[in-house]
Amino acid sequence: MTERPPPGSARPGGRTARTRTAVLAAALDELDAAGLDALTLDRLAARSGVHVSTIRRRWRTVEGVVVDLLAQHYATIPTPDSGDFRQDLHELAQAIANFQAAPRNYHLIEGIVAAAAHDPGIADLVRGAFRARTEHVTQLVRRAVDRGELPPDTRATEVIAALSAPFYYRILILRAPVDARLVHTSAEAAYHAAHAGVFDAQAPAGGPSR
Predict the structure, then answer these.
(1) Residue 200 backbone phi and psi in degrees, to 5
(2) What is the pLDDT of residues 141-154, one digit of tens each?
(3) For 147-179, where are the alpha helices, taking DSSP H only?
(4) Is the pTM of this model over 0.90?
(5) Largest alpha-carbon pair distance within the chain?
(6) Beta-bridge partners for 154
(7) Domains (ranges, CATH) in the chain?
């Protein structure tokens, strides 16, 4: 049996691209206006001008649309390539902070994470979106390994997770704003841990060595 494509996926260009652009723009406007709880396929259809059956066929659910919107927004966060691993981490941390500082981005993340907590299907979609974004960004870690800045067996996804996690803890758990100190400490902590081999695949999985 052929595996079904992820929500919103299709070949780029032409009517397909215009449909996706219209529906995601409508979703963002609706989220700003009324929030995730009030979002429906009918409202998306009315605002976007795309027939509800087309939206249902491509994304299947409102949550599928919102997760695709989240993935689109994450794609706007640049992946640094300064030639220096430490600098790249600081630039990435600042880019994450800038992204989360926009109120509509903050509300988008908050809404979809809250929905995922109550629906395993949404949780799977959110996990997929975050994993795809993390995998894309890991290229900056792999470049650092190639340059000899990090141990060859460094787990790139763990480095990016260590950098990113404090931001989500700050906005989703503490519900406090991201500031310059968080940008600095997150980047520095990830850098020193990676440089010390903490994320090396060969490192012991137990507690600290004595």
Answers:
(1) -70, 135
(2) 999 999 999 999 99
(3) 156-168
(4) no
(5) 64
(6) 200
(7) 14-62 (1.10.10.60), 75-195 (1.10.357.10)
